[in-house]
Amino acid sequence: LFLPSFQDLFGVSMVVPLMNLHIKSLGASHTVAGIIGSLYGIMQLFSSTFVVSSNTTFLRRQYSLLACILLSALGYFLLGTSTSVFLFAISRVPVGIFKHTLSISKALLSDLVSERDRPLVMGHFNAASSVGFILGPVVGGYLTELEDGFYQTAFICASIFLLNAGLVWMLPWSEENTGNREHQPSNKGTDRFSAKANHDLHLKSAPSGALASDSLFQSPWIQGATVLKRIKGIACSDLWDIFLVRLLMSVAILLYYSNFSLALEERFGVKPLFAGYLMSYSSALGVLAGCLLGPITRFYQHNTYRMLLHSSTLTCTLILLYASALSVWMVILSSTFLAFSTTIGRTCIIDLELTIGGNEASGTLLGVGQSVTSVGRIVAPLLSGIAQEFSPCGPPSLGVGLALVAILIMNMNEQKYRSHGNVKLKDQ
């Protein structure tokens, strides 16, 4: 399962940074590209309940993983044949609905290992995925330099998913693999919940894993109403300001990356290969930032609020630096420090939610937080497309405005955070 997870993100990260360049070459406007990106996010948000949460047994998860890999391969194969905007949009449908491969893999891992070993195994799984995301943009940038490079990249990605399907098919197809749970029947619900709580790389909507096993047969309308009800609950909760800060900062960062390769080409005339190197460089620095969280939190005396405020302010400043950059070196500088500020901010906002919300509701809070991020992934492509109609610097400039609003909200509610005492970062 570690090898398919590495290859999964390796293949995806080859293609995704080049999509805006490709759809522009097909004659689509930035707004149309943004609408297609938003529709993809909507499909991910609503299909996650149907595809991921309904698989409650080990064997069903294996078959579901195999089906999702094959249908995702179909989507990337169609992307490799997309010679028009319509075909491009069609190719995103199977991927939008069924690209939940990493989430199901994590659920399978939770079945295969004991509860004591699960954090270590999940950490290794995330590390394998991260390495794929570091290497993919470089390979994709190199391939796109070739004639018909995007189409070759998409076909290679589809081939990688077919290879993953073969690897998954080679897994032992037996319920006997869940022997860890047979000895711990009372923890079955807890383990299932833990697997769902770890769905952090894609758009998730199940907040606490409390869906019934027959949710597979629920109509899309019922599932849609469930998601909308959850969003309403966020707006009416006591933590609305924290979730709003998370939404604004998520959209701001997504706007920074939304048209990264295309903007660099339009503003500085650099090739997609350079953008691939830069994105891989940022991803590697993000991993390093995660390793440095311990010393940084000790420097801040474990005050999560101050860390979040300062990291958000730094993120806002770096996005502004990128938006006003006059040379590629300023872009490299902003990307370097942004990898650190976003990693720190992402960790702090989650810890702040759990500290103020209370440990007894940690599962629900984690799920709701993922739903907030999902909404940001839907909104950001549309905003990016509209802003880019005016200028290549439009999306990051809009991101600066949203980040400023988030910082203002944090300052206005400073007393609320301080009323909980020193908000300390929990051990990860």
Automatic annotation (TrEMBL):
Q: How does it sit in the membrane?
A: Multi-pass membrane protein
User: Which keywords annotate this record?
Assistant: Membrane, Transmembrane, Transmembrane helix, Transport
Query: Which cell locations does it reside in?
Result: Membrane
Family matches, as Pfam families = MFS_1 (PF07690)
CDD domains the UniProt entry points to: MFS_MFSD9 (cd17390)
GO molecular function list:
transmembrane transporter activity
The source's domain of life comes to Eukaryota
Instruction: Name the residues that span the membrane.
Output: 21-43, 63-90, 125-144, 150-171, 239-257, 277-296, 308-332
| GO CC entries | membrane
Gene3D superfamilies of this UniProt entry? MFS general substrate transporter like domains
- Residues in domain Major facilitator superfamily (MFS) profile? 1-418
Instruction: Give the UniProt family note.
Output: Belongs to the major facilitator superfamily.
Q: What is this protein called?
A: MFSD9 protein
